[in-house]
Amino acid sequence: MSDKKLDKLKNLFMMQERLMKHLRSVDPVEVPEWPIDLADRKSQRACRDFALRATEELFEAILMLKRWKGHRVIDQAEIDRQAFTEEIVDSLHYIIEVMILTGVSEDQLYDAFVKKHEINMQRIDRLKHEKEKSSHVC
What we know:
The chain is an all-alpha fold. The chain has helices spanning 3-26, 41-63, 81-101, 106-136. The protein has two domains: 3-104, no CATH class; 106-138. It is extended, with a radius of gyration of 20 Å. It is built from four helices and no strands. The termini are far apart.
C-alpha cells in the first residue's frame, strides 16, 4: 500500500480519536479513558458496547438491501447509496473506536489485515486446488 493510503488510514484514526476526546469533554461517561484493559470487566463491557454499536449500524445498512432473496420479487430498482454508505461509515467509526480503546494502532490494524489477507488467499488457493483435483477424478 502506498504511503498516501496509509496516511488516509492514520487520518481516520486521528479524526476518530479527536471525536472521542471531544465527546469525552462533554460526557466523560460516554467514552472511557483509553487504552482500556481488556482483562477488566468494565472495560470489556465498554468494548462490547462499542462493537455492538458497530453491528447495529451495519444492520441498518443491511435493512436497505431488499432484493437479496431469490424467491421474492421486490420492486427496488435503486438503493439510496448515500444513506447506505453513511451507515457503513457509522459502523466504521465504532470499529475504529474499538481499535483506539483497545490500544490497536493503525499500523497494527494494517499489519493484521495484511496477514489475514494472506491467510485467506492461501485458503482460497487450497480450495481451488482441491476443486481442480476432484474435477479430474471420475
